[in-house]
Amino acid sequence: MKYTLMINGQPRQVDAEPDTPLLWVIRDELNLTGTKYGCGVASCGACTVHFNGSPVRSCSLPVSAVGSNQVTTIEGLSGRVADTVQQVWRETDVVQCGFCQSGQIMSAIGLLSNNPSPSDQDITNAMAGNACRCATYVRIKQAIKLASQKLEA
Questions:
Q1: Residue 95: what pLDDT?
Q2: Which of 98, 89, 76 lies closest to 143 in space, CA to CA?
Q3: Per-residue pLDDT for 153 more than 90?
Q4: Is residue 18 a contact partner of residue 64, using CB atoms and an 8 Å limit?
Q5: pLDDT in tens, 25-61
Q6: Where are the alpha helices (DSSP H) in the chain?
Q7: C-beta separation of 130 from 43 below 8 A
Q8: What is the DSSP string of 56-69?
Q9: This model's pTM is above 0.90
Q10: Which tens digits make up the pLDDT trace of 56-103?
């Protein structure tokens, strides 16, 4: 079935079965490989994209449910919050292996876009669905706090 999806601000035509996870459309049809496959059951967060500005797990979202909604992948990030988060990720040397980081960044941007001054508990709650095999959780939390401070300045 043919779909026109709004991906990173651009209409993109794809041909996929209605139950195909958005993740596979993004990666295999559109060749946007920054969104990762981790678990396939929405438990690890590696496949996180923004759906109308909110983080969602693309491995569990069928392409037929996307409709005219805006989907933003890691490749399509822009704006003050996104730029600040990516900058502090580099400054604080968050990444170890890097596999989970696009999902971590997408969730962090979703948090800071809605709550520019999150508490420790807010950060913990927002990032709870993102697994990091290298256990960089402390650095991730520090980066989110630093991004929050920079955004408030």
A1: 92
A2: 89
A3: no
A4: yes
A5: 999 999 999 999 999 999 999 999 999 999 999 999 9
A6: 22-24, 80-91, 101-114, 120-127, 137-152
A7: no
A8: EEGGGSBGGGTTT-
A9: yes
A10: 999 999 999 999 999 999 999 999 999 999 999 999 999 999 999 999
Q: 56: which strand partners?
A: 49
Torsion of CA 114, 152, 74, 136, to 10 degrees: -100
The Cβ of residue 120 has, within 10 Å, a number of other Cβ atoms equal to: 10
Query: Which domains, and CATH codes, for the chain?
Result: 2-76 (3.10.20.30), 80-152 (1.10.150.120)
Give the type of residue at 50.
Answer: H
Residue 85 phi, psi (nearest 5): -60, -45
CB pairs under 8 A, 24+ apart, for 123-127? none
Tokens linked to 141: 């939390």
Of 98, 1, 113, 101, whose CA–CA distance to 50 is shortest? 113
